[in-house]
Write a structure and sequence with these properties.
Shape: elongated
Helix content: under 10%
Distance between the termini: 39 Å
Mean pLDDT: 89
Strand content: over 45%
Number of helices: 1
Number of strands: 15
Largest sheet: 6 strands, antiparallel
Length: 186
């Protein structure tokens, strides 16, 4: 009988491939005038559409709450969001991940998560650990916008015409042309 022999360091490399978290980052860009930054509040819920990994089943408008902890059936783990797709043996899960020393995300090492500060440039807003599903659409709701004349909370940027606010002295702040994409990160 033939046996496959891998030196110990190969085992580690092989194990890392199977254990690595499938991380997906939400990147956002927008045209901004008179806006210092757009902030994604850390503990706020995110509304997204999710699709079954390797499948076509889609669930629209689901809410992922980073403060919610759900027990994952037949597992010791927890997740912020669970969903069961037809024909799947186990529920799909999504958790919001905060990079740290314990959970380093090399692709985002020099980035500031959750703050969009440069107009017209894709910047990371949040990171998801997705298992069995993947986000395909983001609804731009619940954002905080900081301007030179004030802070505006729970802003809805889903209007195709954008968002605009004026100060008493005639200063204006505008956000328009909001775009997003999901990218795999490591």
């Amino acid at each position: 009988s033939s046996r496959l022999f891998l030196p110990p360091r190969r085992w580690v490399a092989l194990l890392e491939v199977f254990v690595a978290m499938p991380l997906i980052a939400l990147y956002v860009k927008a045209e901004m005038e008179g806006v210092e930054k757009m902030i994604f509040p850390e503990q706020d819920m995110l509304k997204i559409d999710v699709q079954q990994s390797g499948g076509t089943e889609l669930r629209e408008g689901v809410t992922v709450d980073p403060t919610n902890e759900e027990e994952v059936p037949n597992s010791k783990g927890t997740a912020n969001f669970l969903i069961k797709f037809e024909g799947a043996k186990a529920p799909a899960t999504i958790s919001v991940v905060t990079p740290s020393r314990k959970v380093p995300i090399k692709d985002l090492k020099s980035e500031t998560l959750g703050e969009i500060t440069q107009a017209g440039k894709m910047q990371p807003a949040t990171v998801f650990d997705c298992r069995g599903c993947e986000p395909v659409k983001w609804y731009p709701l619940g954002l905080t916008i900081e301007t030179s004349f004030g802070k505006f909370e729970n802003v809805d940027l889903s209007d195709p015409d954008g968002w605009m606010e004026c100060s008493e002295t005639g200063d204006t702040a505008m956000v328009s042309s909001v775009e997003f994409e999901f990218r795999s990160v490591k």
